[in-house]
Design a protein that fits this description.
- This protein has one domain.
- It has three helices and six strands; from the N terminus they run ααβαβββββ.
């Protein structure tokens, strides 16, 4: 996880806006069951976010909470998913809550990518 000093340095150099346009590797994420619950459980006011552990290009690893709005099959395997949702939290402060995201995620390996969408 990034230290407060590292986060401040990134922000000071204008990397926050660049980070918002970059794709980040998902190195760990939810099970298929947790994805399903995130999509189907709850109502407009009470949603169930899932956590994705992402790795930035510089090696920082941290978890972000994502609320899922849409899941589509990438192929016929039943293990690869195209996901649309929005960020609930980012402990680094690089992304604001509510930022829409797109993800590709494989539940077999629990890896993929996450990209904020402008």
């Amino acid at each position: 996880m990034a230290s407060p000093e590292e986060i401040a340095a990134l922000r000071a150099h204008g990397l926050q806006s660049r980070a918002e346009s970059q794709q980040h590797a998902i190195v760990d994420g939810p099970s298929k069951w947790d994805l399903m619950l995130s999509l189907f459980d709850g109502d407009c006011d009470h949603r169930r976010p899932v956590a994705f552990k992402v790795r930035r290009a510089n090696g920082f690893e941290y978890s972000v909470a994502v609320t899922i709005n849409e899941v589509g099959r990438e192929d016929g395997s039943g293990e690869n998913w195209n996901i649309h949702g929005y960020l609930n939290s980012d402990p680094t402060g690089m992304f604001k809550a509510g930022v829409p995201v797109r993800c590709f995620f494989t539940t077999k390996r629990r890896t993929g990518w996450l990209k904020p969408v402008a």
